[in-house]
């Protein structure tokens, strides 16, 4: 098949896992000969790509509505160009399977979370057979890190340490769609991190559905803390982040590793979900609010400047006003820098969907608005305490939607707070991937403003290898994304050792 100048467009919904999977989908399509739609010059760019891939999420109730709405919008393009192909993957594809083709018969391919590597072959098969191809594997056969990847950023990268989840939260459908937890070996992870650093990456985020159970599969319950420390020994790696830990499995050795490893950032995202012990029990979350708060205290004892963020669900079945007040109490006590707040929505196939005492929508909405108000008050107060303090910002493109209007640039502080900073007239302009040291002049509820440079105060630019990597892409054709990198070979289970040295000689 001649795929020269055939274009693709991967549209991502959902979590960081999906974002990273989409990088792999892009890599697969690039190696199959497709060109990213955004990389085609505007005067030659078609309205719709030859292949459109939806990488879907199934966590929220509106996920399906959003997908079918998007598919409906593409139907006229498909009718106008029958050779165009539409593929649907990710968690919603894993859940709904052939239902997608029944509801949207103009879809060509449906693939699940365990077989993203099959996409090019499925597209070819659908084209040859002139009918939809649906392939859903029930378990992971090959860890996705073995696939080619087209990363979104030249200076920052995702690294999966595990896939799947062994928890049984009653509101969550992810374990049914992503499967049981599968851990990569530390050597394989560190090899990928080192490869990324060699390409100019200065920041990595370790990904797992529950990072602090990493290592249980191969018998080392302290493996995650060891992995953080090992990342600290990689020369050129300036920032290490991770998401997400589960409070039930959070251990002190991880806190100590964070505190003692300079390039592990002072930021922690740890889902609370509810501050009510009754609701936590009904959610089958195996911790209680007192344990959650003890973890918060332990983190702040060793890392006083840590910014802690969380996830909270409002309106879980059976939640009373007293339960909700418990959540507000924990929010006030935790002093989260920010929170991702969600209204509970029924997900078919989860135990919570069958529970009695579903909370009326109007009550959920009213509680949701109160929670947002309390969290915004906390966030604003916490951000105001940073006024007058210096922060080191990793400059990023696209973080500040109003940067053109405000004549500022944006990026993330070490604690992951969003910072908008002003560049003094005539001063060096940093590149994405460079570091800038500025002083916070105002703490807003959702970001920090650092105009110290234009007020005669601190403004210093440190050029980095990440900035060099970003700059190197600007003179090359394409969308400003790094070239496809080959997958990292899977180490897998080590073979049985063959003794070459007498046992008594082994130290």
From TrEMBL:
Its EC number is 2.8.4.3. Binds 2 [4Fe-4S] clusters. One cluster is coordinated with 3 cysteines and an exchangeable S-adenosyl-L-methionine. Residues 6-128 form the MTTase N-terminal domain. Keywords: 4Fe-4S, Cytoplasm, Iron, Iron-sulfur, Metal-binding, S-adenosyl-L-methionine, Transferase, tRNA processing. It is found in: Cytoplasm. Gene3D superfamilies: Methylthiotransferase, N-terminal domain (3.40.50.12160), tm_1862 like domain (3.80.30.20). Belongs to the methylthiotransferase family. MiaB subfamily. PANTHER family: CDK5 REGULATORY SUBUNIT-ASSOCIATED PROTEIN 1, MITOCHONDRIAL TRNA METHYLTHIOTRANSFERASE CDK5RAP1. Monomer. This is tRNA-2-methylthio-N(6)-dimethylallyladenosine synthase. It comes from Ornithinimicrobium cryptoxanthini. The gene is miaB.
